[in-house]
Every structure is written in structure tokens, then in C-alpha cells.
Amino acid sequence: MAVDLFVPQLGQTVEEVVLISWLVEDGAKVDFGDSVLEVETDKAVFNVEANAKGYVHFGPYQVGETLPVLTVVATIGKKDEGFLPSDQAPQVEALPEGGGDAPAVDLPAVDESKPESPKAQEREKVFASPRAKKMAGAKQVDLSRIHPTGGEGVRVVEQDVIDYLQQKTKVTPIASALAAEVGLDLGQVSGTGPAGAVTRSDVEGAIRDRLSQPVSGFSAVIPDIKYPVIEVAERTPLRGVRKRIFERMTASDQSTVRVTLVAEADATDLVRLREKLKADKSEQWGFTPGYNDLLAKIVAHALSEFPYMNARVSKDGQSIETLAEINLGMAVDTERGLVVPVIRGADTLDLQTFGQRFRKLVEEIQNGQISPENLTGSTFTITNLGNFDVDAFTPVINVPELAILGVGRIFDKVVPYEGEIKVRKMITLSLVFDHRLVDGAPAARFLQRVKEYLEYPVMIFV
User: Fold this and answer.
1) CA gap 171, 201 in Å, rounded
2) Phi (first) and psi of residue 159, to 5 degrees
3) Domain limits of the chain?
4) What is the Cβ-side half-sphere exposure of residue 363, based on CA atoms within 13 angstroms?
5) Alpha carbon distance 171, 143 (integer Å)
6) DSSP letter string, 3-31
7) 258-459 fold
8) Least confident of 45-54, 121-130, 395-404, 415-424
9) Which of 49, 53, 77, 398 could cysteine-pair with 81, CB 3.0–4.6 Å?
10) How far apart are alpha carbons 239 and 221 in whole angstroms?
């Protein structure tokens, strides 16, 4: 019997993926763990691996097509079997010859003086695929409550169970996450999904409606943008990582009150420390310690001293949540856009362990193998554009975090130093914070401490 190969659940908020490419030929022989296709979520690119040994047969899906998670994209079975997913395979419960209703399931004897309820009669004739039964059992779902779509409407298939579960929750995970980012009350959103479920498009529509309403006496008129007639050289769809960046940047812009503090720091001793670590530890550690590693440890240490910077606003917008964990997001530039892997418990890791974990996550991003769990849960983000000769910039807060630190290049500058004019290694730090959650002076104290540790790294790295 053929084995279904489906798009895995790549994180709690991932509802759909884009099929990027097939990595083998249709009909090719594959083994367990072989990469079969490449898909892109709103965060990164992943390989889907074979879950059986045999010949792979593609489903009717094209490169570039958007697919819901748990879609059966191929089957793995015999060479001449073709694409035969379980919900299209011959039913386990065979119908009587010549058609007619399916045979009733044997049930315990009942008191014939009491008429059998319609619900019990309905439960007698529930037919389901093995995968549907397995999922229903795991989720404790009564199959008789699910509307069947397989076998000409008489057999419950796995997708029916998935649809039922989504309908039951009434809000899709990505819709819930997007609403939380902009502080939208889902109780005021009308759902257009199955059985009235609120979907991402419903939330996006509600956001647009909110923006068109008067706020604090200001005009609600949003003028139409007139596009001049210019030949378009190329049109790139907003999808995958780029769409996620588009959505999150929009949410950050609409849901935060940003203030930027800029400070110039003397990085001469930091440069010396990095050169010493490079010479002393590169061979032993298996990698060359970098400035991102040092800066991350400095920021993590400062956050432990100023916990009000390691915070966020609650989902209901009624409180500030100071977070118990310091999980650093480290912005990484990729061919498909900005990706932010998360190093959890950064304040508890030594420099070597931090560097090892960071490089492992970057490697997984480059190979398209990073777990979605390693791209979520950050409490503070660092983004470094020094490699591009950028001095200072104002990064966008990675909501729902309170702040983000932008790091510029290290450059030579003539400055007064200990009563003399010296050439020192200087660096510019840009702290962007949400002024609704913290005032300027407390945020400045945090940045001042980061600057202090950067200028005197011996205070941390001894």
C-alpha cells in the first residue's frame, strides 16, 4: 500500500507553504530521509524528506503553488502504482455488491422497546480512512460529528478532521498571531473561513478597516495613490519570507511608538579582545569568534541588569510583561530575505557555546533545514549592518518585543583620549524602543551600560 507524503506542520503559526521545487524526478526510487521537495514558509525554506522506501509519485501540484500544511503532495509505493493518496484509495469498509448502503457496524445489544436515536444510527455508518481515524483518536474527536467528503461524501478523510479542528477553534493560528501583533480584538472580526473561522485575510481586512476610521480627531481620508504608467520590468509576488517580512514590518509600524537613541562607542579594546580570541581560540573552538558573538553576550548581560528592556506588551494590551528568559534574535541576511534565528537563554551561555549555537542555526538556515521553533520566541533582537559599511540606522522593532539594537561598522576616528588626540576604533549603536512601554531615560541607561561593556569588555570577558 502506498504511503502518503504530506507537507509537515512546520510550526504552530504556519498554515500554508509554497512549493519551491521537486528535488527528484517523478517516479524516482527514494529511501527513508531522502529529500523529495523544497517548500517555503513565511520564515524560511525547508526540505520535505521521504517517509518511506519505494517509488515516489507526485500529486497534481506545480512549482510556485501555495499548499495548506498536511496536504498529501506525493505517495511512495510501487513503481507502477501512480499517485494514490489514502483518501482516494479503495475503502476499507467495502460496500455490498450492487451498491446500496454500507453494512451496519455490529453494536452491543440494546433494548428494542426504546427507539434508537438518530445520532446512534448515524454513528453506525461512519466510515473513515486510517489516517483520519488516527488523527481523530489523537485529538479525541467524535467522527460522527465530522462532515465526510471522501468516497462520494460517505467517508471521512484526514482533511475532514483537520477542517473540523480548524472550525472548532474558530481562529486560525496565523490569524491569531497577526491580530496579537497589532493589538486587534478578534471578537470584533467576522470570520469567512469554514464554519465562520477567522482567517488571516479576515484579520488583514479588519486592520485595513481600522486604519480607515478616525483616530483622535484626525482625518480618516486616505488618498488613493496614483500609479504613473511605467513599463514593469519584473513583478515578484509577495509570498514566503518576503510576505512575512512585509506583514511584520507593517504590524510593527502600526502598533509601536518608536524612538531611536544613538550612541558612539570606543571599540578599540573590543577589537583587541576579538583578535586575541581569534589567535587563541579559533583552532580549539573550531570557529573564529566574531563581533556578533561578543556583542550578543554584552547585550544579554545588560538585559539581565535592566530586565525592563526584556519585555513586551500583553496580548490584551493591558499590562507590560517582563520576561523570565533572555532569548536573543540575531538578524541574518539570506538570499530570500531577513531571517532571525533565536538563541535561547543567551545570558546563561558562555561565549564558545553561544558561538557554536549561533553558527549551527545559520548553517541550518542556509541549508533550508532550520526548525520553525528556532525562528520564534526571541525577547530582544540585534541586527548588524557593519559589514555593509553602514554607520548608523533605525531598525524596525521585531514585535512584540520592546526594543531592537542596530550595530554599525567599526571605523578609525580621531578622538580625544586620555588628554591626547588619538586614532581609535569607533562604533555606532542605535537603540530603537517602544516609548509606550519604557521612557527615554531608562532606555538610555540600558544603552549606556551596553556602551560601557563594549568599551571595557574585560568587565564581562575575564
Assistant:
1) 11
2) -65, -30
3) 1-85, 258-459
4) 7
5) 21
6) EEEE----STT--EEEEEEESS-TT-EE-
7) Chloramphenicol Acetyltransferase (3.30.559)
8) 121-130
9) 77
10) 29
